[in-house]
Amino acid sequence: MHIPDGYLSPITYIPSYAVAVPLFAYGLKKLKQELSEETLPFIATLTALSFLVMMINIPIPGGTSGHAIGAAAIAILFDPWISFICLSLVLLIQSLIFGDGGITAWAVNSISMGFVASFSAYYSYKFLKRFNKGIALFISGWVSIVTASFVIALFLGIQPIVAHDSEGKPLFFPFDLSITIPALVFSHMVYFGVVEGIYTVLVVKFVEKLKLSLTKGVQNEA
Amino acid sequence: MRDKVLFFLYIFSVIALTSIHNIYFFAVSILLFCFLAGKDIFSILKKSVLSILVFNSIVSISYILYSIFKGTEWIDYVVLINLRVFSLTFLTFLFIEKVNLFKALSFSKTLTYLLVLSFSQILMFKKYFIDFKMALKSRTIEKPKQRELYNFISTVFYFFLNKSINNSKEISQAMKSRGFFND
Question: Is there a contact between B88 and A212 if contact means CB atoms under 8 Å apart?
């Protein structure tokens, strides 16, 4: 789902940096206040965990497989701010060190895959867990990736509208919202959303079964 | 200082490469980057092509088909977007190759420590994960069933979750004992 460099116009990525950087700074400050001197190492090791999650291929019924982003599991087990910071760091390391994803797209990727995915999963689970925990976990994972894909589809889909030449030809991503929303959101609804849902159920239930004590999160609030 | 200057030069170049829409500008930029790459040119070329191949192919082919269907011209856009993405990707790999990123980002102490710590943990976790995969492969003759793969994923995740928590405590104590938090 990462957007590479070259597909977002400056009119899109500069304002998105103006949103993502203060959010990242606020999240970091908030976590420092809550976790004090354990913050830096804790975020660093969870960032490595998030990176690793993206390397694990999860089989889904039907014979195919895909990787999760793990935002929902970390948001539910710990805190959505932790999940957002870790995912943003993973994306920064991927773009600047491994050359995967783009530096111009970092802010948009961070807002969608970090912020939107983490908070949508956290609040979906908080709302749904009273009905059925297992289903709530699956839906939270599914919601996290579908909402993230929707935000990415929005950013990509507005490119031909905000950045085109005098003849109306696109200068960056060429397809508009009528194509990006169905193409991206639908594939995430039927495929990657299922992967993320299965992953969220597997890991949260497993951790819960082992009664691992965690810093904070919806699990510990209950 | 050199790394910081190069970092800001990189950011400036990225903004320029996304603000100018002339294919000759991209062609000259790519030639310049190739010259700056020196002996690393082929490894950076290879990494850049591999990195953009899938996404660019999907977008370019889709756009060509879409344009043919609509009866519009497509060549200008396809050349422009491929040159733009390639130049940006080549520039990023060139930057990674020539600049110490941790020094370049040292204007923020917190960000530098987070990047250094995260990156070192990522390298360690990657190595462990490869070991896990090889262990599974060496112990299974037939393709593992879905249920077995789910168990494997849960166990691997639990191992790394545990390791994350324990490592963070160890690192925190190590940093504390070296006076990091008193600075």
Answer: no
Q: Give me the pLDDT at residue A139, please.
A: 97
The domain boundary residue, chosen from B103, B134, B161: B103
Residue of B nearest to A6 (CA): B85
Both B86 and B119 in one domain: the answer is no
Residue B84 sits in the same domain as residue B55: yes
Packing angle of the helix pair A39-53, B146-177 (nearest 10 deg): 160
Task: Note down the domain range covering B32.
Answer: 2-103
Integer Cα distance of A142 and A137 in angstroms: 9
Looking at B72, B103, B134, which one is the last position of a domain?
B103
Q: Does A189 contact B at CB distance below 8 Å? A: no
pLDDT (mean) for A180-203: 88
Is A104's Cβ below 8 Å from some Cβ in B?
yes
Query: What pLDDT does residue A61 have?
Result: 61
Q: How far apart are CA A210 and CA B154, in angstroms?
A: 11
Give ipTM to 2 decimals.
0.83
CA-based torsion, A52, A53, A54, A59: positive or negative: positive
Do B81 and A59 form a contact (C-beta atoms < 8 A)? no
Which of A30, A40, A88 should be substituted to probe chain B, the one whose Cβ sees the most B Cβ atoms within 10 Å? Answer: A40
Chain B residues touching residue A44 (CB < 8 angstroms)? 113-114, 117-118, 121, 168, 171
Q: A49 in contact with B at a CB cutoff of 8 Å?
A: yes
In whole angstroms, what is the distance from residue A96 CA to residue A115 CA? Answer: 20
Amino acid B65: pLDDT: 94
Degrees, nearest 5: CA angle A109-A111-A112 = 65
User: Which domains, and CATH codes, for chain A?
Assistant: 10-221 (1.10.1760.20)
Is A103 in the B-facing interface, judged by CB distances under 8 Å? yes
pTM of the model: 0.86
Per-residue confidence at A130, pLDDT binned at 50, 70, 90?
A: very high
Rounded CA separation A51/B127 (Å): 13
